[in-house]
Specification:
Layout (H helix, E strand, L loop, with lengths): L2 H9 L12 H21 L6 H8 L3 H7 L3 H22 L7 H18 L1 H13 L5 H19 L7 H22 L5 H17 L11
Helix pairs in contact: 2-3, 2-5, 2-7, 3-4, 5-7, 5-8, 6-8, 6-10, 7-9, 9-10
Length: 218
């Protein structure tokens, strides 16, 4: 493997975050905050998530909430990270059943999409937060991206470290999945169209597989 390939692989490793360790009490407080945020978003979407309401619902002081999450955008992006971590755990317990890597990834992303579909207000709030996020939220957004990458790489299966071309394909797949969520949430795409788009973009995995002879450095 080339130095470039090793660096690219390391950047996509499933170790998705390295937060400062929290005490048991702090972790319990953070859990209450994220659960309260999700409940508010499920009921009323992005606009229903207000910092004061989150603080009251999670039984923490408003100043404490701001120490954990400096803004509503930080809070909702962290909520998406939490939702993806739970989804990743579920997918590892019940991995995709398709034979080909591209089909496994498509199946996995559609399962993720259907999980979002069950709570559309929550999905809309989290996706809007990602869209509105500025540089101050870059670390949290990067963590969400690395989680999504880890989910896709797990679905691809143990075929050795991904090549730079495969990692490029994974990034395109991530962008398409995110775009599909936005268009569905805005009512501009049906679930059937989302499925077609996801299955189409996942074919990039086959096109960039070293075994096909079509893999190119990107």
């Amino acid at each position: 493997m080339t130095t470039e390939s090793k660096a690219a692989t390391a950047s996509a490793a499933p170790a998705v975050s390295a937060p400062l360790p929290l005490t048991e009490r702090q972790e319990a407080r953070r859990r209450r905050i994220l659960d309260a945020t999700a409940r508010l978003a499920v009921r009323g979407g992005f606009d229903a998530v207000q910092m004061r309401e989150v603080a009251e619902s999670s039984s923490v002081a408003l100043g404490t909430l701001y120490r954990y999450f400096p803004s509503k955008i930080h809070l909702l992006v962290a909520t998406m990270q939490d939702q993806l971590q739970q989804l990743h755990g579920t997918l590892r317990k019940r991995p995709p059943t398709e034979e080909e890597p591209a089909a496994r990834v498509a199946q996995t992303l559609m399962r993720a999409f259907r999980a979002m579909q069950r709570e559309p207000h929550l999905a809309d709030a989290m996706v809007r937060a990602l869209t509105f996020a500025d540089r101050s939220v870059s670390a949290e957004v990067d963590t969400v991206s690395r989680l999504t990458t880890a989910i896709i790489l797990d679905a691809m299966g143990p075929a050795g470290p991904p090549t730079p071309a495969q990692l490029s394909a994974v990034r395109v797949i991530e962008h398409t999945w995110h775009s599909a969520l936005i268009t569905w949430l805005s009512g501009r795409a049906s679930i059937a169209q989302v499925k077609i788009d996801i299955e189409t973009v996942c074919r990039l995995i086959d096109l960039t597989s070293p075994s096909t002879g079509n893999c190119q450095e990107v």
